[in-house]
Amino acid sequence: MKYKALVSFAGSSMFLSVAQLIANIMVIRWVSPAELGIWHTVVVLKSYALILNLGVSNGLNRELPFLLGRKHVRLARSVAESALFISLAASTLTFLIFSSWAFIEADRGVKISLFVVAVVSAVSFLNIYYGTTFRTNQAFLLFSKINAVLAGIEIATLFLPAFYGFFGFLARLVIVELLKLALFLRFQPFPVLPRFHWWSFKFLIGTGVPLFISSYLSTITETFKRVILKGVSSFEMVGLFAPALAIYTINSLFPQTLGRYIFPRLNHGIGQGRSLRELWIKNLRFSFLSMVLIAPVVIVGWFLVPHAIQLLFPEYLEGSRATQIALLSGLFMPFSMLMNFFHATKHWRSIYTLVAVKLALFFSIQWTFVRIMPPLSGIAYGTLIAHAVYAVAITIFGFWYVKRLSAR
Questions:
Q1: What is the pLDDT along the chain (408 residues), one digit of tens a residue?
Q2: Cys-Cys link to 322, which of 19, 252, 380, 382 (CB 3.0-4.6 A)?
Q3: Torsion, CA 367, CA 371, CA 376, CA 382, rounded to 10
Q4: Is the dihedral of CA 297, 299, 300, 305 positive or negative?
């Protein structure tokens, strides 16, 4: 079957997405808005910690499939060894910084949350590295099996918040991340030992730093919702936004997972000398296909969400409208995958232009709506409009860019 790897990987990713959606929804039932507000505010630090990786994982994500496409296996192994070395160093440093902060924090809930962020962030550096080594069709079939196991783990560990509340919720986050690492270590498709090679390091950051700046700033836009909401309200208001945040997470998971398949295939195709126009159209089709697949879920969810929250999570009823609006954002989030095309072509001016547009759009629109509307609805409407405008902008820009290349 020509698309066996894609179908298997996409299917397992959807299965994992559903499991995570169920888990995120059930957690809301057992943890109070104030406690979830603490976690959703503190976990923003995890995004900022990514800077310690120096863009090495981003460079590996682009160069490993490119080198394998060119049959340069020895060079591919060298860059993987250096990337693992840097990932371990970043993991250690992150743990030391966040755990030290936790020691001096007075509030018990924030203190324990900081310790959990320290562990989860440290382990996630390694999980990011190992995730980038699944680059071939055979490796993606293996990744599909890992996703299926992770889906089971998501459900099986729900007893922790069910019986132990907020602290069980935090323990579950650590356990899931550690078990994910254990699976990657057991089934890694490109095993290497951590070794630092100066040439490989320079090669990785040469590509990785620009890619990292782009990805990092794009990731920062995802933290605006919580930061702006906390700035105009309280921890409890951020907690009431938790059902919407759960929906945003699920909305982004499928495009991110599918993007992990598309990006190496783009780089492999470029390494083989395939047409950039052909690759752009293929990338765009994946975005529209994702939008079509998500649409029925959005329609059904729009009518079910208010009743589900009222029945299962009455404490969070105030956030039901924001949760409905968050569902609509899912229609436009798949277009974020189009950035993979620009990352693969390494056209830095286009990348930085799009990132600057995204930063300006999301912050200005979200801030404007949260000031002119009730905070929960305002931040949700602002996010929806920002996603829609950005989807149109990156699509138009992509066609212009490919047309300009074809005219040369």
A1: 445 666 777 678 778 877 887 888 788 889 888 888 888 889 888 888 888 888 888 888 777 877 877 778 888 889 899 999 999 999 999 999 999 999 998 888 889 999 999 999 999 999 999 988 886 667 778 888 898 999 999 999 999 999 999 999 999 999 999 999 999 999 888 888 999 999 888 888 887 887 788 777 777 888 888 888 888 777 788 888 888 888 887 787 777 777 767 777 777 677 666 777 888 888 888 888 888 888 888 899 899 888 888 888 888 888 889 999 999 999 999 888 888 888 777 777 888 888 889 999 999 999 999 999 988 999 999 999 999 999 999 999 988 888 877 665
A2: 380
A3: -40
A4: positive
- pTM recorded for the entire structure: 0.71
* Closest C-alpha among 79, 91, 88 to residue 204: 79
Between CA 286 and CA 263 the distance in angstroms is 12
No. of helices (H) and no. of strands (E), the chain:
17, 0
What residues contact 103, with CB distance under 8 A and at least 6 apart? 111
Centroid of chain to Cα 405 = 30
CA distance 318 to 308: 13
Residue with tokens 């590996």: 60
Of residues 256, 42, 220, the one with CA closest to residue 147: 256
The tokens describing 294, both together, are: 């998500």
Q: How far apart are CA 391 and CA 276, in angstroms?
A: 20
Handedness of CA 391, 266, 342, 276 (dihedral sign): negative
Q: Is 43 within 8 Å of 245 (Cβ atoms)?
A: no
Hey, what are 206's tokens?
A: 């040469």
**Distance between CA atoms of residues 376 and 237, nearest Å:** 8
